[in-house]
Design goal:
The structure is a homotetramer. Chain A is globular. Chain A is built from 7 helices and 9 strands, in the order ααβββββαβαβααββα. Chain A is α+β, with helices and mostly antiparallel strands. In chain A, the strands form 2 sheets. A 7-stranded mixed beta sheet of chain A has the order 5-2-1-6-9-8-7, with helices on both faces. Chain A has a two-stranded antiparallel sheet with strand order 3-4. Chains C and D meet through α1 of C and α1 of D.
């Protein structure tokens, strides 16, 4: 028997995907590793508690395009990020990742200030070697670093620098997948319109 | 601003589609005109009030496959059916069509009796010429004929015979799109398992 | 080992599909039973010798959209049509079906005359009862009727009236799937531009 | 007017994609940045001369899945690789990238020796800073490094180590997209079967 909660999650994901797929500007910000949009159950403890897009979101015909359908367990990286963040702030249940570069990072920092959002940078060059080498240890370190850099709060946007073998990506998180989709599209439209 | 009702409708459609796309038996019952799964807002009055599958449900690789995504206004025929039925019984908000033939019709009649469901037949050869020729008049006539044949109640399943230029299709309706998806898959599994 | 012939057939189908999917006008002419675009091997004798679109071509977002990929054996009805026509004229290896109505039929007749194309009508009300009832007998009867109505030649376009349980559809055939795709798109553009 | 050459290229890509999408083992080797399968015109000089998969190849339902259709100009990175390689050996017209790691690299080196294939390693830590910073300079440097490491020949497989912000990927190249698809699937099956 399906819980009402799951139905609502699928519904919010469908609406959020419609927003993302209709946002042409977002196509320019999809990183090489592609984007995932994730939405966690309350108190999610593992990957299977998180709804993600099977095959991630890619660019087809110049528009963002979900390769597959939303499915619990479809995301690994972004799901673990949400699970880890939830240990500090259980109200954060959704997130999306996007391409960045130093120019965008500078602009985002100003934008976050104007919206009173917490912005945080993770410099992966600071990641200890023993963390890099231990399976599954990077994510707790990264989330702890981002929260620590933000004075103990979960940041709204995290800018992560690249590392050896790792493309730099940023993440925007929030309470709800629809809100996250609307916020990232507004960010992209403002950033592109600026030029 | 999205109403909670719309989010719930998208959620129920996503879950219902997962059920249909996972039901291999249903592929054998998709008619030449393909299938639509529709879900109407409460008190739907027009096509745009009804969520349907853009491009309908077809068969790809032997499995049911939604050609596009759920979208309000995506269905014409099935949407008008629900709007018309809603005038008699507002609790009926979902429906799906499927291929039939005289053998299935006979089996369905018995199955409906066993489940205490109302079964009705529309013989389109009885459709008056003036109805056939008037734009948009066929659907009210068909729904009235089905309800009249069922003694004034909205039937659970309607078996519609073919007519000139019209493939025969049956329709199963219900309160909710998830329930309708589960019911039609159970019908298909029982009918196929029987052979 | 793949024959060069098969590679060329897949290549021509890909190019033909790009033409069809880029022809917005064609969306208005896709019948309820959807369209298939088919391409037969030389001297095709059975369904598996004919390349067709898995799940047929439907309308998504207002544009023609192939539900699946080209696959040998994916088509039944249109494949049998080509096999049957090939018995009279082996140079005819491709075809596409499309919605029609008496107005289009009249316009098509004039258009065919202007292009020196053979146009033929099959009135399915003339189909003998014993043919209707015999499994697999309709297609040979239809093709023979169309060729006979055209004085022994294979027509370029066949307009088929509806019958009980059968939507009326027309078919355009030719030597090659790219040519057929270009010709049907030109037909649609001229017919729609006319209004 | 389409050249016969283009039709043949689309045909070979369709066949090659069928091979890749049917190779379950390959799903495990699709890197985070996803895979592209590319096929260059003879003497390709720019991105638009190279057929690639729009949206690249991702994993959906555990199987390799092309996000969009083959399109000239759809690939950037892999297209530039082929253009660069073509300057040394014009017979190399197809390629595919895949995930690697030190274990696979060791195995690949032995496998290449057994097949008499040239295997080459690019250590991106050796990339000069002025190359990294100059737009578009990395690819010529990488291809030159791979060819130089292979004693002046174009290698069959190149193993590229990661760098800051760059996921390590390997590339297999060949004369023809069908051959490349068959070869990479054989590699994956042998490597996975070994365990």
């Amino acid at each position: 028997m399906l819980l009402d909660d799951e139905i609502e999650m699928y519904g919010r994901m469908a609406v959020a995907l419609n927003i993302i797929e209709g946002c042409r500007e977002f196509a320019a910000m999809i990183p090489e590793v592609r984007t995932n949009l994730v939405y966690a159950r309350p108190n999610a403890g593992k990957r299977e508690d998180v709804l993600g897009i099977d095959g991630r979101i890619t660019v087809v015909n110049g528009l963002p395009h979900a390769a597959g359908k939303p499915r619990f367990g479809a995301s690994s990286h972004m799901a673990r990020l949400l699970v880890e963040i939830g240990k500090t702030d259980a109200s954060i249940r959704a997130g999306i990742d996007f391409a960045n570069d130093p120019h965008l990072a500078k602009w985002l920092e100003d934008y976050c200030r104007s919206r009173n959002w917490v912005f945080s940078v993770i410099d992966r060059r600071n990641e200890p070697e023993e963390i890099k080498e231990a399976e599954g240890a990077s994510m707790p370190w990264k989330v702890a670093a981002a929260i620590s850099a933000a004075g103990g709060r979960v940041p709204k946007i995290v800018y992560e620098t690249g590392a050896v073998g790792k493309e730099p990506v940023s993440v925007l998180v929030g309470r709800d997948t629809i809100i996250v989709a609307e916020e990232i599209c507004e960010v992209e439209r403002l950033y592109h319109g600026r030029r």
